[in-house]
Structure formats: C-alpha cells, structure tokens
Amino acid sequence: MTEMAPSSAIYGVMAEFETPGQLVEACKKARAEGYRRMDAYTPYPVEELHDVLHLHDHRVSLFVLLAGLFGAAGGYSLLYYCSAISYPLNVGGRPLNSIPMFIPITFECTILLAGLTAAIGMIVLNGLPKPYHPVFNVERFVNASRNRFFLCIESTDPLFDRDGTARFLESLDPDEVAEVAH
Amino acid sequence: MIEPVELPTKIGIGPLLGPGQNLASVSDKISGVVLNRKTTLGWIAGLFVSFMLMQGLLLGAGVLFLKGVGVWGINIPIGWGFAIVNFVWWIGIGHAGTLISAILLLLNQSWRNSINRFAEAMTMFAVACAGMFPVLHMGRPWLAYWLFPYPNTMNIWPQFRSPLVWDVFAVSTYATISLVFWYVGLIPDLATLRDKATKRFHQVTFGALALGWRGSAMHWVRYEQASLLLAGLATPLVVSVHTIVSFDFAVSIVPGWHTTIFPPYFVAGAIYSGFAMVLTLMIPVRQFYGLKDLITVRHLNNMAKVTLATGLVVAYGYMMELFFSFYSASTYEGFMMHNRMFGPYGGFYWALITCNIVTPQFLWSKRVRTNVPILFVISLIVNVGMWLERFVIVVTSLHRDFLPSSWGMYYPTVWDFAVFFGTIGLFLTLIFLFIRVLPMISIFEIRMLLPAQRVKEPVK
After folding, report:
1. Looking at the predicted structure, is the pLDDT value of residue A107 above 60?
2. Which of A160, B39, B277, B401 is the most exposed, fewest CB within 10 Å of its CB?
3. What ipTM goes with this model?
C-alpha cells in the first residue's frame, strides 16, 4: 500500500493463510493490535477486506465522471465548431447547430474518454506498471495469484518490530511467516 | 465484482463448475492450457487452414487495391454489396461478447464468468474484421483518414450529420473500449501466468503484460471500480453501436430501410447472431481443451435460451416489417416487401426465415438445449441466417430502385467471396492464436465462483 522506506532493514513481515476467512480475521486482529501500514494480497477480490482494512478510494469513479463530462463537452464543441463556425454548410436552410444529429458522436466521445480514464486511472492510481516490488522476494508469494492469501505488515509502521511483529503474526495461526527483503 | 454464489444444482442440468474444483485446480487447469500444454497437431492444422483462408483476404484486398471496387459485383443501383453485408454481420457477432462481459456482469449473472474472456476476444476479432469492410469499400482506402476530423489544408470538415460519420466514431470507440475492457480483465490472470511460468520467456512476457500486478487488496478495490464502470459504459455503448449501424439504413429514404423499428431490431439481431457464434466457437473449444468442467452444459443451456429470446425479438422485427409495408399504404413499401418475398431474391428471404425464425424454435425444448451436437448445428444455421438477413436487407432494398429504368441485379464475384472468406480466416486465425497464448477463461473470476472460497465464520 505504501512506498518502501529504505531506512529499515527489511520491507516487512508477511504471513500466509489458506483461506480468505483466516486472512480477514488476521487483518482484524492486526488492526486491533494497532498496526496500520499493512496490505493484504489475494488471488481474487475479497470484499470483506474493504471495511477491515479501511480501503476506501473513490477517485477512479470521480475521474471517470469528470472525463465523461469533458468528453461530452469536447465532443459537442468539436461538432459545433466544425459544422457551425469553421465550415457552415447551408443545406435547405436547416439549422447549422443540428442538435439531434450531433447526439451520437457526442455520446461516443463521452464513452471513449470515460472508458479510457477508468482503465488508465485504475492502473495509475495503483502505481502500475511496477517492474519491481519487494513482496515478490518471498518465495511462496507466487501463490498469491493462485490459491493463497497473504498479509504483509510493513516496516514503516510505527509499531513495527522485526521480532515482535513476526511473533504477532505467528500467533494468528498462519501457514508460514516470512520476512520480506527490500 | 460479484458475490461468490452458491451453485444451484436443482435445475437438473448440472452445476456451473464440475465437481472437485478448488482454487489451485482451476488456476492450474486454465493456465496450464497456455503454459504446459504441448502444441497439438490439431491446433497447428486448424491454424494452418485458417491462415490459408486468410490469404483470400490478402489476395482479394490486393486485387481490389490494384483495380478498384469494380472487381466486386456492386453497381448502380446496388452500391452496397458484400462489403456492407459483412460489416453488419461481423459487428453484430461482436456484440454478444460485450453483452456477456458487460451487461451480464451488471445483472449479476455469474455463469458468465466462464465464457466472458473468450466472448470478449471474439468481440475484438469480429470488430477487426468488420472495421476493414467500410475502408475496403471506399474505393480510395488510403484516404480513410479523411473520415476523422483533423485540421487540413482543404479547409473542410466531415459531414457530422451523416450516419456514416457516426459509424466511424461508434465503431472506433467500440473497438477501443472492447480492447481496454479485455486487457483490464486480463491483468490479474497475466499475473497468474507470470507466477506459474517456468520459462524465462514466459516470465518476462507475462510479467511485462501484467504490469507488476500483485493482488493487493487496495488494488482490487480500484480494479473492481474500474471494471464495473467499464461495464456500465460498455452497456450503452454496445446498444449505441448497432443502433448507429442501423441508422446507416434507417436514416435514408430507401423503402425497406426507412423504418423506425430498425435500431431495436438490429440490436436484437446482433446479440442473436453473436450468441450463436459464441456457441459455434465454444462447443469445439470445450471439447478439444478438456474444459467441460468449466464450460458446462448449463452454460450452453443458458446461451441457447438467450439465443431463443433474441431470436424471437428478431422474428417480431420481421413481422413488423411486413406489417409496416402493408399499413403504410405506400406503393413503394408494399412493392419492396412483395419483391423481397417473391422477387428474384425471394429464395434468400425464405431461407433466412427458415434459419432465423423456424430453427431456433427447437430451443424451446430442454432436450435440444442440452444436446451439444444439435446445439452446434443450430448455432451454425443461425449464423448463416443472420448473414442472409443482412444480404436481403441490403440487396433487395436497393436492386429495385424507384424507377424501373434504374433496376439492376447484384451478382457477387469471386473477389467478393475471397474477401468475405478471407475475413473468416482472419477471425479464426486470431481465435487460434488467442487460445494458445492467453488464458481463454477468466481465472480470477472462476475462483470467485467457488463456494468454498467465501469468507465464512472466522476461523479461531
């Protein structure tokens, strides 16, 4: 969730769980213990984590809305400028600002900008593309994209203590606890 | 994205997933098709045949560019021949993919999780085939960029009041959004492939494409927002695209085209033909790749139901066309309909009625819907029928102009067929490459279907 802090010796400590239920419970306990700088890794979206880890970010939606409005305004302006200002063509006295005829392209421009923003916004806000990330240093982390659930408490957390945090994670009954090298 | 659901089995045609599947098995099974499976002789043969068929497109387009559109059977009055027929046919096929991936997602139809990836790929490839035809039909295809509004030394702009220009925006937006939607859906699965890959080449390729995806909970939050928003945007988009395609016809004053029913009837027809194409492709794929546990008879049954429902809408459209031509009391409309049924192309009309209205009625029976070979044959017939429908709409409306002195006939030439079959070759080539190099079923969405993977009571 956060950028690495090179000042500490390791990136964090990671625990591996077999089921999403165990992971959610572990996250709850870690929050209760006072840890804040942590992230969970799952092979598919686990909705219960949103509340437990206080993951609330609606910026993607906001950007999409703004991009859609910009696309609509931009699209219509383009049509108006071309057809009514730059190249007015009088066909049988019909209005130059042909509103009904301008709707389809305006609509397509709205969708195009909003859709591209949804994808690019999600990728950029997630800090992707990211060629290197410390969590991949844990050997068993390859299973985070297969069938395992991970919780990583990061060393930037004020309560982080290399041994103490590892002991805490051990107490949550994980399959394995590993240190995450930078 | 969607709540993992209990899999109802009571309807008696089996569950969504075969028995004994878990997180590891679905991940390994689907990614194994790409990573571990040896390239089979069947795949090579299929790709070879498709690739050879695609050479028809190369040859047809080459001759076309050298000599001009005169090599096709088009003339005046039939200025729109195969090119437009094929354009509408292909783009309609594409629409089922968006329907499956976007609309069924919004409607919480989790059975779509097994088929959406494949259907989206089909959409993109179909749109690629469709997009070529208007450009080929242009006569001077190297000037295709004139369709886009860009400041130019001629000091003119495209005619934005023309549906043909709307089409440019609709189809290019549709192609772009389909690609983006497909890629966003692929990112977590590309990460799975990256993590499971053992060969350096696979690790680097899938690693680069996965953008460093690591399944972080925060990332999933934004990911789901983006997916839902894309689905919400693609839903009206897919309706708008075929509506605008139908405007190409409906906004004109040609009898047989100038009808208010065209937009909904075209959209239904598009979904109808698209679902038929998904069935045509899915049935062999699940057979040859051993994916019957993931794409079950229940999926085929559901798709057959959608095919039947949209087929009935299409049938309603045909009946209304008939009724309008009578009720309008317009001589030209009446003549057009009579000529469509009993004129020189009458046989095509009755063939399309047989393929599109009569054939899908068999799908009322559950025995037919769950009988895979029969379903496959029906889907092929519907594909043919929908192509015939576009042929009848385009050609029979044009070939009898208002004045008998302007009447004509349209006979497609070998180059019409070369380009048409060539695009089928292109489509199949892309499908073969897709199923070999990318996961054809969305792995992470299948994981969400597994009932055991729900967050249950906390583990002590």
Report:
1. yes
2. B39
3. 0.91
Tell me which chain A residue has its CA closest to the CA of residue B165: A105
In angstroms, rounded to a whole number, what is the distance separating the alpha carbons of residues B454 and A75?
A: 44
The answer to whether A64 faces chain B, any CB pair under 8 Å, is yes
CATH of the domain spanning B9-149+157-449: 1.20.1630.10
Q: Locate tokens 């779509």: which residue?
A: B112
- Chain A CB contacts of B176 under 8 Å are 112, 115-116
Per-residue pLDDT at B367 exceeds 60: yes
Residue B4, pLDDT score? 44
Structure tokens at B210: 């996965």
Give yes or no: residues A105 and A69 share one domain. yes
Q: Does A70 touch chain B (CB under 8 A)?
A: no
The verdict on a CB contact (< 8 Å) between B180 and A39 is no
A40 & A86 share domain: no
| Alpha carbon distance B439, B210 (integer Å) | 13
A 10-49 residues inside an 8 A Cβ radius of B = 19-22, 24-25, 28, 39-49
Q: Which of B154, B233, B239 to mutate to test the interface with A (most CBs of A within 10 A)?
A: B233
The average pLDDT across B94-98 equals: 88
With contacts defined as CB-CB under 8 Å, which chain A residues touch B217? 39-42, 46, 49-50, 53, 55
pTM: 0.90
Q: Select from B71, B268, B178 the least CA-distant residue to B170.
A: B178
Cα–Cα distance measured from residue B442 to residue A135, given in angstroms and rounded to the nearest whole number:
24
- Contact yes or no for B217 and A129 at CB 8 A: no
Phi, psi of A91 (to 5 degrees): -110, 100
> Percent of chain B having pLDDT more than 90?
62
Confidence (pLDDT) at B359 = 93
